[in-house]
Amino acid sequence: xxxxxxxxxxxxxxxxxxxxxxxxxxxxxxxxxxxxxxxxxxxxxxxxxxxxxxxxxxxxxxxxxxxxxxxxxxxxxxxxxxxxxxxxxxxxxxxxxxxxxxxxxxxxxxxxxxxxxxxxxxxxxxxxxxxxxxxxxxxxxxxxxxxxxxxxxxxxxxxxxxxxxxxxxxxxxxxxxxxxxxxxxxxxxxxxxxxxxxxxxxxxxxxxxxxxxxxxxxxxxxxxxxxxxxxxxxxxxxxxxxxxxxxxxxxxxxxxxxxxxxxxxxxxxxxxxxxxxxxxxxxxxxxxxxxxxxxxxxxxxxxxxxxxxxxxxxxxxxxxxxxxxxxxxxxxxxxxxxxxxxx
Length: 343
Ligand SMILES: C[S@@+](CC[C@H](N)C(=O)[O-])C[C@H]1O[C@@H](n2cnc3c(N)ncnc32)[C@H](O)[C@@H]1O
What we know:
- The structure is a single chain.
- The protein is of the alpha/beta class.
- The protein contains 14 helices and 13 strands.
- The mean pLDDT is 94.
- The structure holds S-adenosylmethionine.
- Residues 21-24, 26-27, 43-45, 48, 71-72, 92-94 line the site of S-adenosylmethionine.
């Protein structure tokens, strides 16, 4: 996915990138071979460093890639002092990327890209709310759209840290797969844009635990009542704008279709992503909704086509096989589910 993203997004071939925690260097080498650019492949572990050097030689990339054996933050801060600016940084830690985020932005050039992996889905999706609060400064409860919650929280947290340093971020492509989240963002050095991004895109999600209704708000005190008459719970701060840009997915998908050796699963994820990207409302877990409505769960494909027939946007999501993304109002969605259950 990283090389597909860079191939379709990086307009110049003479770019400079850092693979911050490179392991054996596989990803950085693939970037260099498939996309181009010059890169620093870094890993703190001396054994990993040894393999990075060897893999650079084996692939005859000595002129374009250099191995480093530094602690990730140290390397980035050294780069700031050297005046070298980066076009792309890849952050692929075990667990949370948060310990590296502040350092990542500082050596970036005016407009650059970052690929971030997070494997700490438990705190990101509120399975461990205490950790969520400590690490992501977010008070949460468990929600049915937990994977999307994880992505939105990761993006909001990155955007707020970036803004404090004078960088504005735009999430271009966001995915959750198995045990990890991966986001690709564009960063621009601009306090004015950073203000606009935080002002518009960092907000709250209101959520009804009894009916599963949900929506976004910029003002945590300005939320509708649940249809049950109860007050919703307000979760945040989180990212409330789009988490993927439609044009980016289309370009990545085009690149993917040209690539023969790609795993079928990657293509399927990208196709689902293309379909779901225009619906910003968090997906709803159909099994949980049907349990609230006390009806048998209809086939998700049937529900999707019924909603589309009625003129709503509706699609499955790559994030969860039980998840439905739709812009249909809650009452309408419930009505269609009841109607399908009667058949
Ligand atoms: C998840 S692996 C990276 C895998 C690699 N990106 C790949 O695709 O093969 C994480 C790597 O980070 C390295 N590492 C851990 N803490 C680090 C730190 N603070 N600075 C630099 N490298 C670190 C580990 O040695 C490990 O090789």
